[in-house]
């Protein structure tokens, strides 16, 4: 009874309501109720803004409440919320795409070749030990302040995650299934296409979900360090003006972008892996 | 010897029988030694036999006698340590696939990401058979295996017996003239096993492929085979060779009531018993 859908939904909404109410009015109340020394700084709107201010900033940055009208406002600003979101989303997508495609390709090649995997193994371990974020300034130095450096940063973080999973997945393919395919007339390439890849796909997808979040992280960090546009740039600008509510707007938009990307990967996954029991319901 | 083109398969088979049963599989002085942690042990030792066109030969022996090893060497899946294997007069090369030979595994090797019909049609698909032709042939095979209504199912939705039927059809749809089977029904319960025997008997009595069937189940060997080759316990050596003169068509249940079944059963059981005792004495 206590875990019926309605009850769960009730508690979810209740938690949301409490958070929003405390966030909006908690600081004011605590000032009148508590001695000054106990007033929680974390609730100060100077640091964390508050829902009503965030909403106003959202309307302003998104050109919803501009005197000149929506279109004129969009054209008038070179890093409005829409453009920033689009740029960040686009760079995340390309970084994710290149990162996972190259990760899958490298994982398949090294997974199928004992020789190559043994030759490359120390280099891969070494490169993977570098904290990727440390490379961001270098990437910006090489590729400039534009979109290319953000895509390259996302690529860096995505590649290894996908590579390692594809490699393991390729290693874990059932040898008897490969033998069966051979005996049914499959060539080396056909075995790769019809047995190894579908079989490794479950492993690949296990990495794509975190990879898409990593791609977003890579792009945002790139935008922090040096960019002309994007949500990360929006945050850095707001920080310079100590404008917490604008930062919060960008953060919330990132959250939605992250959710959308995860849903996209998830639905592709449940279609391609519909032969697996855990995806049966959604197939 | 020149391979018959696949469209004249049936014709070739009839010719084969007419020409006083030519030899399809010839195993000569076959040996297999393994190295296990520095110590060499002999799995198969000097085994020779022949399988003629249209014969259903069961390779029977106690567990670990090397019968699957022999089959895998015949299929070219495993290199041999000594001796020769000829299929239609040509030496079997390890790693080379002979399109005239079909192989059915003991383990479930279906592709779980393919539906029943996609599994059955796999060989045709990769051979580039056009979809229009494939669809019809797959539908016939699905029907023949008694899997109507499950064509769109994924393997995990099927029982063990149904999965093995799919595996059988995946091999048979390519119309192999020679069929190698490695305890294909070993993992099934008794009832399902009898059902599978019925299906296999129906198919074989109609199509008369040349079959080499590995099993440790004496009842199964007597039910299906026209000849039984009995192997000794490790190292696997040829022990005895029997013809199973039970008339066809056979029914997997009725066959057990024939005098020939009873006679061979007790004879081979005795012989097999000696081998089991030897295995335990090791």
From TrEMBL, chain A:
GO terms for cellular component: plasma membrane. It is a multi-pass membrane protein. It comes from the Bacteria. Pfam families: BPD_transp_1. The chain crosses the membrane at residues 7-26, 92-111, 123-145, 151-167, 203-226, 247-265. Its main location: membrane. Gene3D superfamilies: MetI-like. The keyword Transport applies. SUPFAM superfamilies: MetI-like. GO terms for biological process: transmembrane transport. PANTHER family: ABC TRANSPORTER PERMEASE PROTEIN HI_0355-RELATED, ALKANE SULFONATE ABC TRANSPORTER-RELATED, MEMBRANE SUBUNIT. This is NitT/TauT family transport system permease protein. It comes from Bradyrhizobium yuanmingense.
Automatic annotation (TrEMBL), chain B:
Residues 25-258 form the ABC transporter domain. The keyword NAD does not apply. One of its GO terms (molecular function) is ATP hydrolysis activity. Keywords: ATP-binding, Nucleotide-binding, Transport. Pfam families: ABC_tran. InterPro entries: AAA+_ATPase, ABC_transporter-like_ATP-bd, ABC_transporter_ATP-bind, P-loop_NTPase. The keyword ATP-binding applies. Involved in beta-(1-->2)glucan export. Transmembrane domains (TMD) form a pore in the inner membrane and the ATP-binding domain (NBD) is responsible for energy generation. Belongs to the ABC transporter superfamily. This is NitT/TauT family transport system ATP-binding protein. The lineage of its organism: Bacteria, Pseudomonadati, Pseudomonadota, Alphaproteobacteria, Hyphomicrobiales.
